Fold:
Amino acid sequence: MYCPQCLAEYREGFTECADCQETLVPGTPPPPANKPEVDFVTVLDTAEPTALSLAKAALEEAGINYVVIPDEDPPNPFRPKYFWGFQPNVAVRCRIQVAREDEKEARELLEPLRSPAPDFNDTETT
Structure:
């Protein structure tokens, strides 16, 4: 016996799922469906901690899920491969990736962070 909604298995004698209150069906639950793999694309590549923080805040405010991947050469075996919502406390070049379906919106949000910062130390006048 199993619940057709949550796929929890039950012993004989039970008739209703304790969680879903659905009527149980005989047999074993079907195997879980394979989830499609997410196609990630890089929308920002930076070593600037401020740009990384601003990018994360903008994506979170827009409801866009992302992953931050540090690029180290050579790789540091003691540092995690991916930063999920975590910002490293040292300047490490990182790539922010989003699902392909969110790419356009993410690129628009992050465009100001891709432009080089103005050099306020430039003393040349026009």
